[in-house]
């Protein structure tokens, strides 16, 4: 369960960073 939350949070952060970088 923890891994899933960590992955989801990481993906969200990555997406946010990509949008910001754009």
Describe the structure.
With 22 residues, the chain is mostly helical. Helix content is 91%, strand content 0%. The chain contains one helix and no strands. The protein has one helix at 2-21. The longest helix is centred in the middle third of the chain and has 20 residues, at 2-21. The mean pLDDT is 92.
Please specify the SSE layout and strand pairing.
Layout: H1 2-21
Helix content: over 70%
What does the main sheet amount to?
A: none
User: What is the N-to-C succession of helices and strands?
Assistant: H
Distance N to C terminus = 32 Å
Shape: rod-shaped
Uncertain regions spanning at least 5 consecutive residues: none
Structural class: mainly alpha
Query: What is the beta-strand fraction?
Result: under 5%
Summarize the structure.
The chain is mainly α and 22 residues long. The chain has one helix at residues 2-21.
Can you give keywords for this protein?
mainly alpha, 22 residues, 1 helix, 0% strand
């Amino acid at each position: 369960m923890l891994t899933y939350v960590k992955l989801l949070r990481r993906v969200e952060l990555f997406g946010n960073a990509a949008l910001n970088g754009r």
